[in-house]
Design brief:
Elements (H helix, E strand, L loop, with lengths): L14 H11 L2 E12 L2 E8 L6 E5 L17 E9 L6 E4 H15 L5 E10 L8 E5 L5 E5 H4 L7 H4 L5 E10 L4 E5 H4 L15 E11 L5 E7 L6 E5 L11 E10 L4 E9 L2
Parallel strand pairs: 3-5
Antiparallel strand pairs: 1-2, 1-4, 2-3, 4-5, 6-7, 6-9, 7-8, 9-10, 11-12, 11-14, 12-13, 14-15
């Protein structure tokens, strides 16, 4: 055995030791949902832990604390979990997101006030279902999910929420109502942000503007069209026919000609001229 080690020499901690210690202390760990697998008891998240190479965990459906439509959408996203047990042979950890979120929710609901602006993270956009309108799902802090109805989330009335928001996007939201006793937290993105149409340029027919593709969609008649967010005017989203040539994807930067513009009606009609680098 080497008698004298180099200055600063330190072996990385054994991931199993870290997991065991987290279980003993109740420490919350960050993990990434790497995949969803289905067992007899239902879906299970397989997670990898941030900073713990080779360490893996499982989160059963009962410990996810997310609505059914979001189970698969969390793949690739970061979650916070508590370690409930570690298999000595495989090192596989049994985890609970539900307990980690419950702790965070208690602190969050006790600290926020009506009118306060929170920094949130978009988790998903859910379509209309079961009598509910389309709504935005955000993480208000520590994994605590809040559904924001379209009326409080929309930036443009003529553009679907799915084109206005993307998972992982940071957004600011104003607290409309909070009740720690019932666990109620109502948020509004619209109230926390200025109207983007009020401050955008006065576009004229024939103007050439740059933008990014927010979504490619179809109308009820089956015609395809493109939603484009105007560059330099975040939240101002125009609509354009799909070009006859080429393929567009969300995030593509494009050059467009203005066909018509109405600030009052929040409408911007464009024609895509080409894809920019």
């Amino acid at each position: 055995m080497q008698a004298i080690k180099p200055e600063g020499y330190q072996l990385p901690a054994d991931p199993r030791d870290v997991l065991h210690q987290a279980r003993e202390t109740g420490r919350v760990l960050e993990a990434v949902v790497s995949r969803v697998t289905y067992l007899e008891a239902g879906p299970v998240w397989e997670v990898t832990f941030t900073g713990l190479d080779g360490a893996r965990g499982l989160v059963p459906r009962s410990e996810m604390d997310v609505p059914d439509p979001l189970v698969n959408r969390f793949v690739g996203q970061v979650v916070r979990v508590k370690v409930k047990g570690v298999d000595r042979d495989t090192g596989l950890a049994a985890c609970s997101r539900r307990e980690a979120v419950a702790d965070a929710a208690e602190r969050l609901l006790a600290s926020v006030k009506e009118g306060q602006v929170l920094e949130c993270l978009v988790r998903a956009v859910l379509p209309a279902s079961e009598g509910k309108p389309p709504r935005l799902v955000v993480d208000a802090g520590g994994g605590y999910l809040v559904e924001i109805p379209r009326r409080d989330a929309q930036v443009s009335e003529s553009v679907p929420l799915s084109a206005q928001y993307r998972p992982g996007q940071p957004v600011r939201a104003t607290v409309k109502r909070v009740d720690p006793q019932t666990g109620t937290l109502e948020l509004s993105v619209k109230a926390a942000n200025p109207d983007p149409w009020a401050g955008c340029p006065e576009y004229k027919r024939g103007d050439i503007v740059a933008g990014r593709v927010a979504a490619v969609a179809r109308n009820k008649a089956g015609s395809r069209f493109v939603f484009v967010e105007a560059e330099g005017s975040p939240g101002v989203i125009g609509i354009a026919p799909v070009p006859l040539r080429g393929t567009l994807r969300r995030g593509d930067r494009v050059s467009c000609a203005v066909a018509s513009f109405s600030r009052e009606n929040r409408k911007l009609h464009l024609r895509i001229r080409g894809v920019l680098a």
